[in-house]
Amino acid sequence: MTTHYAPQAKGWSPARESDAGNLQGVIGYFPDTVSVLADDTIQMVKIPLGAIVMDCILETGPLGTSVTAAVGDEDDPDRYISATDHSAAALTRRKQTNKNGVPYRYTAEDTIDVTVAAANVDDNQALRLDVFYICGVDETP
């Protein structure tokens, strides 16, 4: 199991929390030039303190027979997208709420990650993760 880093996970500095509540978006792109193996994690994008993720969209090429991809973070690897079939080219959107039915607010800066699982992941397949979040709002109803 290896952790890889998309350029946006290391070099991009996310917006800081503000009271504006504006929707922010960031695109993480992992190039097709790096080999990914079963159970590898790819840190795709940074998320700032106080962020509430509103949507995640994962797009991949055909990753190989029986390959699944999950989207989450270090504390919950499938917080946003449970292990979903990406053996063929696929586009997957996040669950509407987390496991407890409420939005999750980050209490520290973190990364949104993709974890792949399979016996053999095909080489030369890029991954793209679009993440939309808000900061500076109270998520309680």
Fill in the keyword field for this structure.
1 helix, Jelly Rolls, mainly beta, 40% strand
- The number of strands is 9
CATH class: Mainly Beta
Uncertain spans: none
Listing every helix as H and every strand as E from the N terminus to the C terminus, the arrangement reads EHEEEEEEEE
Helix content: under 10%
Beta content? 35-45%
Structural domain tally: 1
- Report how far apart the termini are: 40 Å
Question: Tell me, what's the shape?
Answer: elongated
Radius of gyration: 15 Å
Could you walk me through the main structural features you see in this protein, from its secondary elements to its overall organization?
- It is a single chain.
- The chain is mainly beta and 141 residues long.
- It has one domain (3-134): Jelly Rolls (Sandwich), CATH 2.60.120.
- It contains 1 helix and 9 strands, in the order E-H-E-E-E-E-E-E-E-E.
- The chain has a 5-stranded mixed β-sheet with strand order 1-3-8-5-6. The protein has a 4-stranded antiparallel β-sheet with strand order 2-9-4-7.
- The chain is elongated and about 45 Å long.
- The termini are far apart.
- The model has no long low-confidence stretch (mean pLDDT 79).
Please render the helix and strand layout as text:
Blueprint: E1 3-5, H1 7-11, E2 23-30, E3 41-47, E4 52-60, E5 68-72, E6 81-85, E7 90-93, E8 110-117, E9 127-134
Parallel strand pairs: 1-3
Antiparallel strand pairs: 2-9, 3-8, 4-7, 4-9, 5-6, 5-8
